[in-house]
Amino acid sequence: MGGRKLTMRATQRWLAGWLRRDRGSVSLWVVIFAFVTMVLLTLVVDGGQVMIAKSRAADIAEQAARAAADDIATGALRNGQVAIAGGACDAAGPAAGLISTYAKGVDVSALMRSCAIGAGPEGTPDVTVGVQVSMKPAIPAGAFSAISVTATETAYLACGTATNVVAC
Question: Disulfide engineering: 130 pairs with which of 55, 80, 148, 152, CB 3.0-4.6 Å?
């Protein structure tokens, strides 16, 4: 029995010494884990914001291109031709007006980067609009102080029905 008590005491002394040496290691582990968790949280939240910004940029560009394509030149129409008005892409045109209206309604800054009237498939008139959308990330950190994405969309002016589209 005496030998067993000695072994138990030796074990207790060894355990007490080990606990004294290991003091604070859990605190260090918690600090490192909390830091890594915050970094991952920032990446997930801001990554979601980037996806939302890309979607917004594409939506704005698409709607601006449609607005510009809907601006038909009335003079050409009177002569039997269907054409997009020359001012559809101007600063006072429908594309720029739609972009500025959208930017006022949400916490986003939108800027028209390009707008060009051209000819699409089968000679149909088209308008291509490029938009840049900038927004603040949910958790601004270092290099991620602003999110800025661009999108380009094209709208075609076509005649006919939904099943039979022809050049005008």
Answer: 152
What is the share, in percent, of the chain residues with pLDDT greater than 90? Answer: 15
Report how far residue 149's alpha carbon sits from residue 14's, in angstroms, rounded to the nearest whole number. 61
pLDDT at 17: 72
- Beta bridge partner(s), residue 160: 165
Write down the pTM of the prediction: 0.70
Where do we find the tokens 């939240």?
Answer: 45
54: nearest Cα among 135, 126, 140, 142: 135
